[in-house]
């Protein structure tokens, strides 16, 4: 008989989080995204240890960006771990060079979704931590994000009707995942690019956060993550209220026409969100703050006012009580 795994306070914390937030229901098929770094190793070990209580079917997915000389060795390292734990392993390798961190991220999520869909997994689980959440909030704050960007990394996100992304470690610091890996003797694969100060994200992690911890608040990561959590609830509510307002303001026979009188009585926060939802849906792309502001301005603009063309050529115009979008 194999010995039972040790039960630590972190096991108990994650067990409680999964239960209270209903993140990963029992008996589901989970695809765990493992880079080989400390956070995702901590995640997979916790899920393996909790598995008997929850009845999940676990598998590992690794994405090889081919960014580093040791990328193939890194993938092999994760493959070996999956073999040791006797769980399925899926690996995708990029077939083109990925020009930026953002491009790599987009490719990675597409690759993970494809593996999940082809092999019938309902959940992709990642090892994002409280520290990632705090860093993402700071990064987006400096880029001028609204609350939507500052809610930074949510516990779960729908990829489709049948596939969800879940991040169970959002209340766990990177310090804790490192300690856990050490205690459990998990073989971390160190990613040398994490130390490269050319990347803004690394400068935030290695320079800005330590500065804030030393000079302002030792618990700054926790405080920022808490801000993200509060903003998340606000954003959820505002998006819901905006959806309802958009529904009321949309012309019953023409989805490209909005009633200005209804919008004029709403607060600016909702006007902006309605305009963003309306434009994103009609043009099927995300838009900049300035483009949404131009459309919002039409709510109170004189009759016959219009915007410059949006990407793709569409123009919004005012016709007495209505704003309507003319697609090119
Ligand atoms: N190469 C990889 N293969 C599989 N999973 C990965 C890989 N890289 C990252 N992940 C998953 O994503 C999580 C977050 O990693 P990291 O913080 O490096 O990514 P990121 O680019 O900042 O992602 P995001 O934009 O989603 O925050 C990891 O804990 C892991 O679960």
From TrEMBL:
<comment type="function">
    <text>Ligates lysine onto the cytidine present at position 34 of the AUA codon-specific tRNA(Ile) that contains the anticodon CAU, in an ATP-dependent manner. Cytidine is converted to lysidine, thus changing the amino acid specificity of the tRNA from methionine to isoleucine.</text>
</comment>
<dbReference type="GO" id="GO:0006400">
    <property type="term" value="P:tRNA modification"/>
</dbReference>
<dbReference type="Pfam" id="PF09179">
    <property type="entry name" value="TilS"/>
</dbReference>
<keyword id="KW-0547">Nucleotide-binding</keyword>
<dbReference type="GO" id="GO:0005737">
    <property type="term" value="C:cytoplasm"/>
</dbReference>
<dbReference type="InterPro" id="IPR015262">
    <property type="entry name" value="tRNA_Ile_lys_synt_subst-bd"/>
</dbReference>
<keyword id="KW-0436">Ligase</keyword>
<keyword id="KW-0819">tRNA processing</keyword>
<keyword id="KW-0067">ATP-binding</keyword>
<keyword id="KW-0963">Cytoplasm</keyword>
<feature type="domain" description="tRNA(Ile)-lysidine/2-thiocytidine synthase N-terminal">
    <location>
        <begin position="30"/>
        <end position="206"/>
    </location>
</feature>
<feature type="domain" description="tRNA(Ile)-lysidine synthase substrate-binding">
    <location>
        <begin position="263"/>
        <end position="306"/>
    </location>
</feature>
<dbReference type="Pfam" id="PF01171">
    <property type="entry name" value="ATP_bind_3"/>
</dbReference>
<dbReference type="InterPro" id="IPR014729">
    <property type="entry name" value="Rossmann-like_a/b/a_fold"/>
</dbReference>
<dbReference type="InterPro" id="IPR011063">
    <property type="entry name" value="TilS/TtcA_N"/>
</dbReference>
<dbReference type="GO" id="GO:0005524">
    <property type="term" value="F:ATP binding"/>
</dbReference>
<dbReference type="GO" id="GO:0032267">
    <property type="term" value="F:tRNA(Ile)-lysidine synthase activity"/>
</dbReference>
<dbReference type="InterPro" id="IPR012094">
    <property type="entry name" value="tRNA_Ile_lys_synt"/>
</dbReference>
<dbReference type="InterPro" id="IPR012795">
    <property type="entry name" value="tRNA_Ile_lys_synt_N"/>
</dbReference>
<feature type="binding site">
    <location>
        <begin position="35"/>
        <end position="40"/>
    </location>
    <ligand>
        <name>ATP</name>
    </ligand>
</feature>
<comment type="similarity">
    <text>Belongs to the tRNA(Ile)-lysidine synthase family.</text>
</comment>
<protein>
    <recommendedName>
        <fullName>tRNA(Ile)-lysidine synthase</fullName>
        <ecNumber>6.3.4.19</ecNumber>
    </recommendedName>
</protein>
